């Protein structure tokens, strides 16, 4: 996603801050969140809204981490990214990375594997005229786009 043609800010867990050198740069350039802290999650939402007001695009992983026991199965999405998109009336662009589970498996110790890197940017989904009561519907629509692409790519 770092090769994304759009200048974007990443929203990610604060564990990334602990990686030597990279963590310092990540913290300075992107938004980090301690998912265990309600205050941190709230501040991240406020900072995300401000970044959008400043004309930035956000890259948010709505699963909130790699938590599926059966990759490449998609985990359920959290609401934050979708609430933000609806509040700001901005489009959501679903992105599928179909072979990430092979290249970067969720195992300790962390080891990268060789493989085909493919990133699929789907058509934007508009949020015009959606309200916060539509968060579930938007979340499901984005989930279905990504899930069906994963199944197709990994068949």
What does this structure look like?
The chain is α/β, with parallel strands linked by helices and 155 residues long. The protein has one domain. Helices cover 36% and strands 11% of the residues. The protein has helices spanning 22-29, 38-53, 80-88, 100-103, 135-153; strands at residues 8-13, 31-33, 57-60, 95-96, 120-121. The strands form two sheets. A three-stranded parallel β-sheet has the order 2-1-3, with helices on both faces. Strands 4-5 form a two-stranded antiparallel ribbon. The two termini are 23 Å apart. The model has no long low-confidence stretch (mean pLDDT 87).
Overview in brief:
This protein is of the alpha/beta class and 155 residues long. The protein has 5 helices and 5 strands; from the N terminus they run βαβαβαβαβα.
Order of helical and strand elements: EHEHEHEHEH
How many angstroms does the end-to-end distance come to? 23 Å
Spatial strand sequence of the major β-sheet? 2-1-3
Radius of gyration: 16 Å
User: What is the mean pLDDT?
Assistant: 87
| Estimated helix fraction | 25-40%
Assembly classification: single chain
Described by strand count, sense and barrel closure, the largest sheet is: 3 strands, parallel
Bulk shape: globular
Structural domain tally: 1
* Class from secondary-structure proportions: alpha/beta
Number of strands: 5
Poorly predicted segments: none
């Amino acid at each position: 996603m770092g090769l994304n043609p759009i200048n974007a800010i990443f929203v990610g867990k604060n564990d990334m801050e602990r990686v030597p050198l990279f963590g310092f740069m990540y913290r300075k350039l992107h938004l980090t969140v301690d998912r265990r802290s309600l205050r941190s999650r709230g501040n991240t939402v406020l900072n995300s809204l401000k970044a959008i007001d400043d004309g930035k695009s956000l890259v948010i992983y709505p699963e909130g981490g790699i938590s599926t026991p059966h990759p490449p199965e998609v985990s359920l999405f959290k609401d934050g990214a979708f609430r933000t998109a609806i509040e700001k009336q901005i489009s959501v662009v679903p992105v599928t990375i179909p072979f990430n589970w092979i290249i970067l498996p969720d195992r300790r110790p962390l080891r990268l594997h060789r493989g085909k890197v493919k990133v699929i940017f789907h058509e934007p989904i508009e949020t015009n005229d959606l309200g916060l009561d539509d968060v579930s519907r938007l979340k499901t629509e984005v989930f279905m786009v990504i899930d069906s692409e994963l199944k197709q790519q990994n068949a």
